[in-house]
Design brief:
Elements lengths: L8 H7 L7 H4 L3 H5 L5 E5 L5 H9 L4 E6 L2 H13 L5 E5 L5 H4 L7 E5 L18 H9 L5 E5 L2 H13 L3 E6 L14 H8 L5 E6 L1 H7 L2
Parallel strand pairs: 1-2, 1-4, 2-3, 4-5
Antiparallel strand pairs: 5-7, 6-7
């Protein structure tokens, strides 16, 4: 669903210092962009930016990048980050299909997929899910060593487990009800707060691609 236009959004998109506008000039050089060699953690689909901004405040020694394909949503997330004192955090207006054009292998140390679009319905729509084998291949190509996944959608969670397993990914720390699991330091997204307040379970897992899994066993 496309977002309604907001009068304040164009100014944010044009002037917010956290939005990378000359992205093509930084492709594969994001450590140089941040000016340090700290790890880079990436979130695909940042929503209003509550999660990624809080993560940056809690972990100032990590560089964070959030990508979003909807300009109004990106503008809202960047404004939230600027107003709430986020640390080393930048935003990119782009589609996940362009990941391998924007990032080089080894750029990203952790990937977050939080409450991604489940793309329900027809089987062909499954190819648009961010845990489909198409995207898993991209993450593996970029040598992303670990992926953290959260959703409120049980069918998407089950699909994702099957997809990870079928493509040789190692899955761990699976939770069928995150907020009753006792996990510490969980940072919630705006959707997570809404759904959990309604008593809905939050599903979570961590996954590593085949190459990362084989290295860790050596």
């Amino acid at each position: 669903m496309r977002q309604r236009k907001k009068k304040w959004a164009p100014a944010q998109l044009a002037n917010n210092p956290r939005i990378i506008r000359d992205a093509a000039n930084h492709a594969g050089q994001f450590k140089q962009y941040f000016g340090n060699s700290n790890p880079i953690h990436l979130e695909i689909g940042c929503g209003k930016g509550c999660f990624i901004a809080e993560m940056s405040r809690k972990n100032p020694d990590i560089n964070y990048i959030a990508i979003e394909r909807e300009d109004v949503i990106l503008a809202a997330a960047a404004r939230h980050a600027e107003e709430n004192g986020a640390c080393s955090l930048a935003f990119l207006l782009m589609d996940a299909d362009l990941l391998t054009e924007m990032f080089s292998p080894g750029d990203v140390d952790r990937l977050y997929l939080n409450f991604s679009d489940p793309w329900p319905g027809k089987k062909k729509r499954a190819k648009r899910r961010l845990t489909h084998e198409k995207y898993l291949a991209m993450y593996e190509q970029l040598a992303i060593p670990e992926l953290y996944f959260k959703t409120d959608n049980r069918p998407l969670f089950e699909f994702s487990i099957e997809s990870f397993s079928a493509n040789g990914w190692l899955i761990k720390n699976i939770s069928l009800d995150l907020h009753k699991s006792g996990i510490e330091d969980n940072v919630m997204t705006e959707y997570e707060r809404k759904f959990s307040s309604m008593g809905m379970p939050i599903y979570r897992l961590e996954a590593s691609p085949p190459r990362a899994a084989s290295v860790s066993k050596q």
